[in-house]
């Protein structure tokens, strides 16, 4: 089984560790002594920009064996389309998984932008289609479309985008989009169509993923819950689906070292306050349902061995990730592969240093699988 492993490239600054939830890399927080990208030298900002730091993360993860990087998109991030175009020259085969909400671009314009990036990069664009989690963030974009209708709009968007991809004329008359005689021009038409990673945990999302997704992408959940979700996707798919999981990883030489890092972060938060998403995201609601009973310490959020549901307290993002020794984390990833997972988006804080750590110490331990990787760090290691 072929497995693609991506890394996450933070587009909104970064923390120095999980021990304190404070941004010290990038201009998303005040630039003070101790900051990076930019830093402060002799009382003045240096010339090292955050986009250069993102380039370092992309190069580090490419060197370490990751096939590409996820570029997230939120109100407080750099734009992933512009970032991908900027970083493409910093890498050679590295794929750029652009997260975007279809409602904010017209599908014909999205097709033109995508085909231009494909032509410029040799086909290294990948889509992470998200339809929005509702609440204040959705309104920040000016989007008042209701939850299920956002997925209906996404389906139409992808129908139109595919329709114009190889040239025209293409006509479409739907609820959200109408085009007549549309099609990409010669030179852009016929570029490799980007793989689609489709996110969403609701029935509407699963139905749409069944029509359009190359990979159904889920946050990490307890493995039994992922198995049930994958079965739902299979039952609602027009074709044989493939699965991907987005996972934060905290791996160290020993399990004790890994959990000690979590403890240090836990000591700096108020465990009674769950800092999470608001709105109508079913994925977030699901993630909170897996933790039952009183939470008196950080190990109470370990719902199954090495699967910890407190990452959202230490950094922004989903709740669940893997904590353990290098060998334990590799074993859990192997278990997921055996459940049918064909791709991962891994992440760690800080992104730069953890890309090297996970690439050097975890990826080589994955066994019995055809990892689509190209890295000098992994030459001669079991695949």
Automatic annotation (TrEMBL):
InterPro entries: Luciferase-like_dom (IPR011251), Luciferase-like_sf (IPR036661), SsuD_RutA_monooxygenase (IPR050172)
Keywords, in A-Z order: Flavoprotein, FMN, Monooxygenase, Oxidoreductase
GO molecular function: alkanesulfonate monooxygenase activity
BP GO annotations: alkanesulfonate catabolic process
Domain Luciferase-like residues, every copy: 36-341
Gene3D superfamilies: Luciferase-like domain
Protein known as: Alkanesulfonate monooxygenase
Organism expressing this protein natively: Streptosporangium canum
Phylogenetic classification of the source organism: Bacteria, Bacillati, Actinomycetota, Actinomycetes, Streptosporangiales
